[in-house]
Records
---
Amino acid sequence: MIDLDLRTVYFNSLLFFFVSAIVIFILWWQTRKRFDGVQFFVLYIVLFLFGDGLISLRGYIPDVLSIVVSNSLIILGASLSYIGLERFYKQKSSILKHIILLACFVPVQYYFCSIYPDLNIRIINVSAGIAVITGLLVWLSLIKLRNIDDPILKAYGIANMLFFGISIFRIYRTIYHPQVIPDYFNPKTTDLFVVLSFHVLFLLLSFFLILIINNRLIREIKSQEDKFNKAFHYAPFSMCVTRISDGKILEVNEFFEKLHGYTMAELDGRLISDVNMWLSECDRTSFMQSLENGQAKSLQYQFKRKNGDIFPGELSAQTFMYNHEECLISVINDITEKTKADKLINDSQLMLKKFAAQLQSAVEEEKVLLANQIDNELNQNLAALKLELGHFKNQLNAGQSNNAPTEISVKIDDIYSILGNSLKSSLKIMSSLRNEVLHIMGFMGAVELYVDEFSKKNQIKCDIETNISKYPLNPQQSTPLFRVFENAMSNIAEHSKATEAKVRINTVDNTLRLEIVDNGIGFSYNQSMLFTCKGLMFMQERIHLLDGNMQIETASEQGTKIIIEIPLCA
């Protein structure tokens, strides 16, 4: 009969626990962002490793370490395996029961080790702790998780059931047949069998945990493959997988066949260059150059179908590794209808823009016409009436004595004054409708006069810089641009708290560039303010109707710079 040394059993188990710890650690590292709970499995194996190591050193290290600490680590590791299994399958429960278990186990183990040494009670204590944890694991794996279709999980539960049964048997055996010689490493045959069974089951449970993680990982991969296959084959746009090294077509989806007119049988084993789907080889070269970073997004090219029809397409692509080879998945979306719709929208926007510009021009023309009518009719009549009234007053005064003016004379003076005020108001209304300076002197003259009056009125030093030697704008451009200029200068006077301002007007490449700069307090600006702030929206809309653009550069306490560019009419 072979005389088996129990210490040798522990040392041999250490090797397997060490290998298991490495394997589970690798699995946890690979799946740490995918699965929760695997970190507890790693701790479970590591604690068993240290616990068994301390037990195997009994007699060489203090008993507190080899008896109390070692068995406490084993019980703690078993509890962590339960918590890890719960989290692995997204089940949550209180850890209070595990805390209570350790709170009961550790004092008992310490008492019957250091205060009142008793091997049999320690064996009962350890067996009871293991029985509680394995019982919980049986309930979790076979009852609570019974809806999970995983045969490895069921086998894990059965192994825990055996563990539970052997623990109960060991308690019964120790109670009714206690060890007479208090030497843990020289047990009776039955006790040796129980200890060996414990180690075999420990190793088996570790092996099952590795399989549980591996099986779930395989299922997740298969699930992702199924999702990819469904998304690939039933996507409503053309998809093609090619090998980058030689351009061989590996797979296409159904929409590729429908869009390009080729079947998978026709494409089997062919190179993408043989399909002749590119309208221009230059486009294909340009596309491959854009893949330097491994991807390309929303590139538009012209493609050919099998029957020779040409269609516009939007191409996106991404490189990936498949079977240790670099491959490319390409997605082509037929944008024929989108292109037509975009053209219709652009045409509509252009028509709307032209209509708005014509409407604005018509409004300005109506203002000028109305101002002319006021000038030609109302103002002249008021002026003539004022002259006639003055002549009448002079005649009336000549026929009277040198006495105080009569009541009629006073009334005539009042009417004369009213006529004068009416004429002033009429002239002011006419000027607002038709900017007289702009009408007579042109854009540059109006700007120079406005800047001069602006400086005097607001006590803000303002200079003009320009390279324009002649008037470059037509009336349809000068009026709205001057309105924008007035609005910008009014903002400086009202809000900027500036002491200096500068106006630059230059022409560059048939473009008029107007810059308005101040040294004021500035403001917090974002692009959306062009569509929410009434004043800025007014300026932006007028510049937009002139086919120009407006930029605003500003920051708190750093002044403001407005840049306006409009094309000059030929």
---
Amino acid sequence: MTTATPHSGVEDPFLSLLGFIRQDFGQINMENLQPEKRVELAKYFIQRRRADVKDWLGTTQFPDREPLEVSFGLSAEYKQLFEDVYKFAREFVSSSDTQSGFRRRVRYWAALALLRCVMSSPEAAKIALLARIKPGDLGDQETTEQDYYPEVFDTTEQDKATDVVPTNVIQEGETTFPENEKRKLREFAKRAESLTGESDTKIKKASEEIRKIIREGNQPIVFCRFIATANYVADELKKNLGREFPDLHIMAVTGEKSEDEREILVSDLCKSRRRVLVATDCLSEGVNLQEGFNAVLHYDLPWNPNRLEQREGRVDRFGQIARVVKTILLYGADNPIDGAVLNVLLRKAREIHKSLGITVPLPVDSESVMEAVLKALFLHSEDGTQLALFNEAPVIEVHRKWDRSAEKEKKSRTLFAQHAIKPDEIVKELEATDSVLGDPQTVARFINNSCVRLGSPLYNSLSYKTLDLTRLPEEIRMRTDLGQVAEIAFEQPEPKGVLFIHRNHVLTNVIAEYLFNESLDNTRKNRIVTRCGVIRSKEVNELTTLLLLRLRFLIKDPGEETGSMAEECMITGFRESSGTRYWFSKEEAELLYQKALPSANLTEDEKIHWANIVLNGFSKIKPELNALVEKRSASLAESYEHLRKTIKTGKVQVSPILPPDVLTVSIIVPVPKV
């Protein structure tokens, strides 16, 4: 069981997961873990940080994250609107003292959501203020507190995430509204609508930062909380940046579109040379954006530190070719809500991440934290801009728990780091797998050599190769559907816009199948591949034969009657000297297969002569081929036995199926000595 986020920060759910592995693990005390229990748990539970992967079995390239904070001051008009709405919100929160607990809490959330929308953007403010005029109906039993959490707070559960303006909770169950209140709200909405352009210092500061990022040659993502804000930001950025960057493509992608539509929109945007993606949190999880973007600006601060990491993790991940990923928190210097979020949650999260190199989730619900902290906004202060939230008891308690959780995580990383994984054994198994399936170098050599024979050699560029598909056979062009020209690479991370060609890529599969079919078709003339070939090469001193074999094995798990079939290909061979055969090792045969190139010409009659000598003697080598397959079968059984001891399963039986299939015969004749 593998997960990128193994620990939510809350102990009970984590222990429950461990209990799936072994029942007694669900009762473990992780703080006071006894040595013998630690050793036992380490057999099943391994934690790996990016730092563990980066320098393990070679070097894996990851970007460095450069976190920045950028502030802006509200314009006089916007500041006045905030203060007026804040005063209005305090009044209707105070008027709920006589209501029941549930309705009172919802009214408080409505005030909080209203202020958040006002500080998000003029568009979100207008929608929220007008929604306040319309009465809603909470119902008596249908609606629960949890139903409103996704609208007010930032849940990290994808199925509950929402990016619409929270009109339901803002309406908060009123049946009637005084006319003077409606008039005041309409006036607020009208003022909000006029606060675009020069009066909106937030979008002006965001435009400045995006301008810097683009001038540096980077491609940013701008994350917003609401759909209305994202669309507004995209439109304003087009106005502010379009003249300087006429080729800049700016697009808003939000929850208005389906998941498939969002994927298509992002893919189309990535084709532009200069691009800015404005998105809501519908793209903050489960989407890889590192190939198209390399910077993040948080236009609206997330109210959940896990959401912050999810957003930045879209670009700060493996496959990002930029060495540095810039992430910017944009906040209002005179916005008390932004101040609370920054000081209570986000700065603390970044401090822990910088110290440990990992993200330690908040050890309590972020919704509860923000609710406790921001209540001070309405209950303790008459002036929303003069808050002393950060010495509040809830904040001190949250930070104490978070520090304790971080310390436990640090200790846990020490206890359950990758010590249970033995690198030498892993390398051995990886090399064995690559030798059967093909490593990147093998794939590159196959595609290069095949394309030369097919009449379309690859053209080298600095970090990739260019393939002209118009010169390949029509069958390959039709089945790969890669267009006329493709830029390809065989190593990751590949450059932006370049196709990574691996052993399972459609290009590899189609070319392999095309060549294999041609080698079996005896009706074709002038075939570029055959199952038997003869060359004269200076790489050998005696007549040498290389064979490509298909080996098959029957593998049975304990208690299984029929078993399953497995197969692999192997290169082997021998040289003959004075009537004696000397078989090559696997490594010697593979090296010679790569190095042996024609050094002199052979006539057709000479090729037929040497081919007959080798093929007519095949009956003599069949016992030796069978012995080779049996040896390989024993080696596979040994690998299965090692795996069995690791995961504690029954013994696996591996039986060879004889004789092996001879797919190709390559005959190498020495160059005559003069």
---
Amino acid sequence: MIEVNNRMKMLLVEDSEDDVFLLLRELKKGGIDPDYQVVDSEEAMESALQHGGWDIVITDHNMPGFTSFRVLELTRKYCFDLPVIIVSGIIGEEVAVNAMKAGAQDYIMKGNLARLIPAISREIREGTVRKAKRQAESALHYMAYHDSLTDLANRREFERCLAHALEDAHETRRHHVLLYLDLDQFKIINDTCGHIAGDELLKQISRLLSRHIRAGDTLARLGGDEFGVLLRGCDVTHGKKVAEALCEEVREFKLVWHNKPFSVSLSAGMVVISDAYNSTSELLSHADLACYAAKDRGRNNVQLYQTNDADMQQRQNDMHWTNRLQHALQTDSFFLYHQEIVPLQAHGADGFRTEFLVRLQQGKDIVPPGAFIPAAERFGLMPRIDRRVIDMAFNYLDRTGLGREPTGTFFINLSGGSFSDGELFSYILKLVDKYRIRPERICFEITETSAFANLNQTVSFIQQSRQAGFKFALDDFGSGMSSFSYLKALPVDYLKVDGSFIRNLLDDPIDLGIVDACNRIGHAAGLKTIAEFVENDAVRERLTELGLDYAQGYGIAKPEPLY
């Protein structure tokens, strides 16, 4: 039984004042004193439902030009979970069954209102449950298609909208525009101020971007600090204007966190959605490529994807390589070659020297490093590949016993990205213990350009490693404009003179002079020098005369598989 003070809101659909009086009397007898409104036409009911707030509808079945079936339709239209009970004087069984199928919760004869109060009590209770369930389902549905942090559409919803736009482009030949947006300084704020600041930045940027989006367009957070914009019925000119406006808006924005202002910028990749495309994945891939091109070309700008753009073609090739390299790391498809390094002077004959070189097995093909390393460097995979190479090299030195010999030096390349790996040194030490390697047998090679790009991290890593007994070689020396001035900062043991100078030193006096200078500077610093790309005996002889310590190249020994 419902308590008397329960002032439920009841909508009575009835054209007879006498029947309304009888209903209210029956309700009061049952302890219900409703806040009610009586309507007797479709227009009046529609107006009442639009104001909402009703707990239940009690309706007659047959009124002039207005039946309970229409009452049910209007109720479902405006208040889907609102319970409806039909109270009628004349209603056949077939009509009653059809009314129940149409959504009525119960039907009661006016001549027998004994079931009215129990029916209302039941429907109020079950209606509350139905409403809560419906709200939960609605919330789950909303969450499935919206980003919980920014309240924007999520990637799933964006891809669905993108698929519809692509379908429209095929059917109507109409163009749309896809923008792929990436915040340039997000990681700095996230790392320096924490994730709470990063989340706040994303929320504020989302509101900022929303100001420039038309009602028919779609703005979505695609993940992390990446956003997508779908501009429907848009050409290149308008799309670029919108993208530039978004970049300008973000450039002028500042996040104030703990009284400190932080600036960010936006890079935008743009793709015209036309019938030339066949999938959303291709659209997103090209937009992503264009966005990265915008970053490479200075950030805070807009780049339109163009198939004849060399940089985008290269990046697309790199992205294909990235998937292949990920698979190769999972399937142990990397293996090692080695290339011997020989002494040019009598004092250098103090043990075997060779450099380990990584290769990739793709089916029956052997892929050289020049084909995949640029992509691996661009997408941050080189630290993982470096670890794999170190493991394979140490394993070989353990199996052969060469890693425990009193003489010999084995060169292993490290990429610039590995110096940002704070765990690399401890990883190497664990492998030393695992494979029982003498650290002094290992010489890590770093290129001049990567060393100077991360100078502080490089110096710290080298100093730490040399204290443990490892040696270091500076590769491609002479290729940089500041080679000599930076040499004092790098505590290395070997200089490997850039092969581009070695190859032509017999015919080019400038190359000869550079090689001679590199050798003299190296010796002045107490280092051993190694000439790369030595391709014939004449070059080897001239290098010996210049006083270089070691030589490496096809004229000395070709790379061979490591067995």
---
Amino acid sequence: MRELERNRDAPDTGASTGLRSLAVIGAGRTGGSVTPAARAAGLDVRVGTRGTAAVTAGGSDITLLCVPDESISAVCAEVATATDLPAYVGHVSGATGLDALEPAARRGAQIFRLHPLQTIPAPGTSLAGVPAAVTGSSPAAAEVARTLARRLGMVPFDLAEEHRAAYHAGAVLASNFVLTLAETAADLLTRAGVKDARAALTPLLLSTAANWAGAGPAALTGPIARGDEETVRAHQAALAGLAPELLPAYTALADRTRAVAAVAAYKNQGGTPVSTPKIVRTREELRAALAPARRAGTRIGLVPTMGFLHEGHASLLRAARERCDVVVMSLFVNPTQFGPNEDLAAYPRDEAADLAMAAAAGVDLVYAPAADHVYPPGFATTVEVGGELTNVLCGDPARRGAAHFRGVTTVVAKLLNAVGPDVAFFGQKDAQQAIVVRAMARDLELPVEIAVLPTVREPDGLAMSSRNVYLTAEERIRARALNQALTVAADTARTAGEGSAIRDALAAAGKVLADAGIEPEYLEARDAENLTVAERFGDRPVLIAVAARVGRARLIDNVVVQVVQVVQGA
């Protein structure tokens, strides 16, 4: 029996490097590149296709399936019928798991993946120096895959099977998506009047890739790296007019670029160095970390977040940095404020980017507990603000219900207790939440100031939200109607003056939403302090609030309208 076949029965002792024969199933781009590389390395190579796979594979040291992803399992089943089954069977897909090779594994073959991390545009593409991801069903299988990769001229690296999808997503980002971005950039330059946009952009793209290969994130240049947010806003305004469908992609990439710039900075790889925030996962670690500041009597600020940070969160963090000596950011997706049909599992998360943005904003401490630490087994206590504040608007039983705010107040109370801040910062976009939290702090006599900061908006007026990522390009354009409707309502009220009817402002706002094809969950006018129904403008500030589903995203927004009586002749 061949040496490689003997190793099949002894997977823990390592695999032989005495590879002599290789069966390549598939003669397309990848198979047509593997075959000449293997022959150049002195291997005895046989090439087969579907229908001849069993005959081709029989008696070989290794069989490598270079077929489309959707055919791997079926072709492997064919290989598994070979009389003299190879000791090792592998495939070259980055996206497909080892389970596709199960037919061969059931017959005793050890299985592996060998994925060239490079686009292969045509048969005969050189594999020299190409990185290759290697996964094996055993140490022996992994070593055989490494050996084969080296014989083909590639540079192998190990990849755990459980991280296969994340790895392949990264490969898509670095290849397919870069091409998509390049085409998008060329399209935008063409709209701006550049005649040969691809020729104009090619040197920039190539030099950028070369710079990143040499310097990593330190190679980042441009307005975000230098902190020029005015230029970024000008870009967004230009896109809103010339190419509005590109605005969501630009905004998402700008957020991610801020995180990359922050990483580069706090690793001292470029830009202005900033401090890396300390990360704690338990309240005991949190209290120990804050003890010196508390003994010194310094002012502590808290910014509660559910992560996936954007500029709205960053504005709260910067305000906390300006007003407080120590800034704590909580990072916790609170399960108790999600209803049974809401998006807890799908809620966007990116802890690495969140930590980088926190660092850029000067956060000192990040409290990122696990759910079972916040709500351990047996947890049975809730904090609830009753009455009109939590059973209207989003708290209406027909909408999210009062249980949503019970989840909010419970977790905020726990955070305030754990951190003990002097000031806690919230955004006006979640106006009802801020009103409810302020009432809780007042009623429980908690020694904390609840600071509510203005809503941060995109250049086209859409309120920044983590859920904006759910919007398609067409939905993103339609979603602008929420702020437009609120603006029309406020303008209607101010034009009519003190004492004007609420119904006229709401009717004007409703028409804007209807014209955009948006059916609101609610569009209401409430007292801006106690959320009772507002009858007219003028006596007290009025909160006009809207909630609506646009595609997958449930969006909320609001405006506070204060109509001041104009005294004639004043």
